[in-house]
Design brief:
This protein has helices at 2-11, 13-24, 31-55, 57-64, 67-86, 101-111, 113-125, 130-158, 163-185. It has 191 residues and is mostly helical. It has one domain.
Length: 191
């Protein structure tokens, strides 16, 4: 079980970064905001290993060649949108709701593609049944993201800069990091 918890913590790091960014975007943060963000990321991290497990090696081979490009494109697009909105002259309440179902679904899927690949190998890593492992990974991610939203909200109050710019840059950096890691591990075969 400890192995599954460690895997859950590792898988949730990208989602944590986005949760921190999302928390900083709120002028008034409510528990429902943190819950919704954490629920989307926790659910995605729980579902993707099961999909990976069920899909088998064929899907891994099909996704492996482009997963890094998909993650990169989604995170950069959302990051650029956040930076653009930071410079628009509007009230924070008029901005796009970072907990809107479509934005959260996109971010949750983008940050959980690694969990899909883990699902393929999870039975080899740990003796825990896939369903139990998925629930643990989902709960760990939910808890980490829930706390991350509050961290981001409190950090926002201590910074004089616009959190949306920092958040947008963070998403671009995460997407670039994932792309570079995949390209380096595949020997630049992803170009």
């Amino acid at each position: 079980m400890l192995e599954i918890i460690i895997i859950g913590v590792g898988l949730s790091m990208d989602a944590l970064a986005i949760s921190i960014v999302s928390g900083g975007a709120y002028k008034r943060l409510h528990v429902r905001h943190a819950f919704r963000i954490a629920a989307f990321f926790g659910a995605a991290q729980a579902i993707m290993p099961v999909i990976g497990y069920l899909a088998g090696v064929g899907l891994k081979t099909a996704i492996q060649g482009i997963d890094h490009w998909v993650i990169f494109a989604v995170l950069v697009a959302i990051g650029l949108k956040m930076i653009y909105e930071a410079f628009k002259i509007r009230q924070a309440e008029e901005r796009t709701d970072v907990t809107s179902p479509m934005v959260l679904l996109t971010l949750a899927v983008a940050t959980s593609i690694d969990a899909l690949a883990v699902g393929l190998t999870l039975p080899l890593i740990a003796a825990t049944p896939i369903g139990q492992a998925a629930v643990v990974i989902g709960i760990v991610t939910f808890a980490i993201c829930f706390v991350g939203v509050y961290i981001g909200h409190h950090v926002r109050h201590f910074s004089g800069t616009k959190m949306e710019v920092v958040g947008g840059l963070a998403l671009i950096v995460i997407g670039t990091k994932i792309l570079i890691e995949h390209l380096m591990s595949s020997g630049s075969s992803g170009f």
